[in-house]
Structures are given as C-alpha cells and as structure tokens.
Amino acid sequence: MKILVANLGSTSLKWRLYEFAGGAERLLHKGGFERVTDYAQAVGDCLAQITAAGAIQSEAELAGVGFKTVVARGVNGCVRLTEEVLGAMEAYNGLAPAHNPPYITGIRLFARRMPATPLVALFETAFYQWAPEAAQRYAVPADWHAAGIRRFGFHGASHKYIAERSAELLGREDVAERTRRLYLDDGQSPVRTPELRVISCHLGGSSSVTGILNGIGIGNSLGMSPQSGLPHNNRVGDLDAFALGYAMRTLGLSLDDAEKLLCRESGLKGLSGGLNDIRDISTRAAAGDAPAQLALDFLAHETRRWIGSYFLQLNGADALVFTAGIGENHVGMRSAICARLENLGLELDPALNAAVQAREAVISTASSRVKVMVIPTNEELVVAREVKRHLEARGN
Question: What domains can be seen in the chain, in order of their start residue?
C-alpha cells in the first residue's frame, strides 16, 4: 500500500510517499516546493516528480493521500475528506488563517485530479479527544461554549509520535500499542501498571507542550487556535483576553489589523525586535542584544511554566522529551528549560546535551529520576500510518 502525505502551507507544498508492505514501512520519496503561486501546477508537478523518480508508475498506485489538517468545526480524528468536512474547515478559517485556506485549496485540487483516490485527514486536534473535560473548557458562559469556544490543542501528530516512540524507548510496548490504536478503539486498549507519564515539548516555528498519560494526551498548551500557548516565531501565544480590546482602543487598531499583528508581528519576532528565526535570535543574543536575549528567556520561561503544569497534572514524570526544530537542535534552550530542576528529580547532563542534535538520545544523568530525551518527530509518518489504518478498517 502506497500513501502520499501532502503538507500544504500558504506558499508551499511538501510531500512524503510511504510504502507499507509485509509489516514494513518505507519512505519512497520526498520533496517540496516553496513560493508556490499556482497550487494546481504544484500538485501536478509533485505527482510528476514522484512518477519520474520511479516511486509509482501511475497515480492509480496511490491507495490514498493523507493531510495533516489543523481544525474543523464539529469534526475531529482521522476522517475521509468530503465537501462537508471541507465546509467544516472553512467555518474555522479565522482560527487558523495560515493553515486552513491553503489546505482546503490543495485538497480540492487533489480531489479534482484524482477523483477515485481516497483523501483522508488526520486533524491536529485528534490527539486530545480523550483529555479530561476540564482541560477542554474555558471559563466562559454556557452559550459561548455551545458556540464552540473551547480548548482544542494542536501538534497532535507530533505529540502522538512522541507518545508512541518514547513508550518504545522506555520499554513500554503496551503503551506504544495503545497509542498506535488510538483512533481505531478510542484509546481503550489496556495498559499494565505502573502509569507511564511523559511530557512532550514540541519547540519550533510553532511550539507547544503536552502531557501524555499512558499514551494519551491529557491536554496541550495550545488552546482554541494555533495562535495561543507558548510564543511562536511570529504568533503571540498566550495573551490576556482584555489586552486585545485595550490595544485596539489605545492604538486605534481595527480588529483585522490587531489580528494580523498578533499573527504576523508578535511572538519571538515581537520580543526580539524583528527576528523570528531562533538561529538569528541566538546569534544576536550572544552578541549582547537585550531584546534577542529576552525572546530566548521568554520561550524558556513559558515552556517551563507549561512543563510544571503537566508535571503536577501527571503527578510527576517518567520522561521529558524535546522534539521539533528548536527542541531537537538548540542545546542552549534545552539547558535553560531544564535548569535547577534537581528537586523535581530532573538532572540534565551538560556533556550529553551538548553532543546531541537531531537524533534520538537520553541527555539526562544516570541518576536522574526523570529521563530527559531528544526524539526527532515524524508527523508525516504518523499521518501515513493513520491513513493506512483508516482505509484498512473500512475495507478500502
């Protein structure tokens, strides 16, 4: 079975093609385009490249195309993409303006090009379906909640990969198997005791922290939109709700203007004085630039705040995992986040930490009660696996 995973951005199309055969999974092809202006052309060129590389002989070989969709009104999990689902995504365009519109456009182009091929979405909100109700609510009036004002949580594919892979590395195959089957059996697969408690830190251009209990997400620092939680490269993160109205009145901003500033000029970019790449910010901070150092300190501070929250919710932790671009590569950020946590049973090994970039490793001391790990994420593989399970479960 060959599954194509398409990752659509506002000006980009990236893809990975996986083959599942005889219990094995293999990456056959990957590629991408930046500065896309014609998505129809990009979709055609993507399929042409895969064919020219010999990964497929024709588009008919594809058992399905998977998409790491973000959020839709009233739709969650791993689902077949229909016009009804796309309409539900359109209803939430305002929550994910950089994500939903390009995905909707690309999905419709794939459907037009390959009408007989199943198109399947794994929503980024799916991993938190079984979080406690208190973790999914805001303290708003009942009619607000009925209208859809609630916490969703995102980066679900990444945190699900970390849940599964960390369980494997910690010798808990029962938990790993439960995580694999989440969207097939509603997370009801049994696990043996003791509980496995993992805190996953996805730190990159967009960042979040998730608490994971026995392979299931109990909550996420991101809330109703991908603009919340930790500071992102140019998106604000958490902000007092009344700050928006105050800024609009004081600075003479329209709602559209304020939203654009919160989505495009805030986060690390707003704190650092215009830089949104952690590498540039780190270079500037090392040269003594105070705003750049503040951006680094703020990201570490907010990450620690959310780690602390899930440490209490989980009653401790067996592992703290760093993943995504910053988490996998930024030695200094990992060090800042883990500083002075010995009384919580977490001791980072400076030498091990300094030696690790973008590979699996344990970077805590041998005596640390909490294992600190680096695990490169693989969101596309998670999507491909779930598309395969979805199709198999429905006889496709």
Answer: 2-123 (3.30.420.40), 186-379 (3.30.420.40)
